[in-house]
């Protein structure tokens, strides 16, 4: 599928999404504090997810950064974190440097990160991302695959939030889900199976207070419990934070970026706010279409 067609499909998905905003209230659900012993699903210490419920989830495996998570936002496009794909990986142009490889894997039948493989041919890191920024602003990258994944329909893709849909679905208190194969505790090994966590979105004020002086801004979204216990962890970076809503059932509001430990009380997981970088996603897909015209894969 061409990049031009993918860009058009992203726009169509957005228009369909707008038509469903009025149904948002009926599509939300509630997270309950782990302290109430009513929530047991969490990536740290967690509960197995069924990859069929999260068909957009992928594993991003790099020769430099080890492995991260990612999400399929197009049949040939993966959304992940910039710190998983550094500028040293791509240089000043999106083609990968010699001796550097990034491979994408969908889950296999046992929910392990070693299913159907694709290679990354171009990697775009947000121009304003800096690895020296402790707040990891603009922590986002787009990966172009050598060939697309085949689905029966586009429900296997997740819809990236826009500023408008983020204001409807990505509100504080909304219950979100984060998935990944990251560590099950701060000192443990990565999980062998895909895990999930249900975590409530927090207000920017709460998050700024938790990370005082760090520079939390509207480009971030935070999620988790004051009591801790449910969170993403190392190896989950780049993975999707999703909320219920939209034409395909789920909207991606965040990309796993960083946090103080994993599931520590008083600290929330910090994510790149997808609604804020949606214009960058669309512009990057358009720029890639021009590259394809000049230089066929």
Automatic annotation (TrEMBL):
<dbReference type="InterPro" id="IPR001254">
    <property type="entry name" value="Trypsin_dom"/>
</dbReference>
<dbReference type="GO" id="GO:0004252">
    <property type="term" value="F:serine-type endopeptidase activity"/>
</dbReference>
<keyword id="KW-0720">Serine protease</keyword>
<dbReference type="InterPro" id="IPR018114">
    <property type="entry name" value="TRYPSIN_HIS"/>
</dbReference>
<dbReference type="InterPro" id="IPR001314">
    <property type="entry name" value="Peptidase_S1A"/>
</dbReference>
<dbReference type="InterPro" id="IPR009003">
    <property type="entry name" value="Peptidase_S1_PA"/>
</dbReference>
<protein>
    <submittedName>
        <fullName>Serine protease</fullName>
    </submittedName>
</protein>
<keyword id="KW-0732">Signal</keyword>
<dbReference type="Pfam" id="PF00089">
    <property type="entry name" value="Trypsin"/>
</dbReference>
<feature type="domain" description="Peptidase S1">
    <location>
        <begin position="43"/>
        <end position="286"/>
    </location>
</feature>
<keyword id="KW-0645">Protease</keyword>
<dbReference type="InterPro" id="IPR043504">
    <property type="entry name" value="Peptidase_S1_PA_chymotrypsin"/>
</dbReference>
<keyword id="KW-1015">Disulfide bond</keyword>
<feature type="signal peptide">
    <location>
        <begin position="1"/>
        <end position="24"/>
    </location>
</feature>
<dbReference type="InterPro" id="IPR033116">
    <property type="entry name" value="TRYPSIN_SER"/>
</dbReference>
<dbReference type="GO" id="GO:0006508">
    <property type="term" value="P:proteolysis"/>
</dbReference>
<keyword id="KW-0378">Hydrolase</keyword>
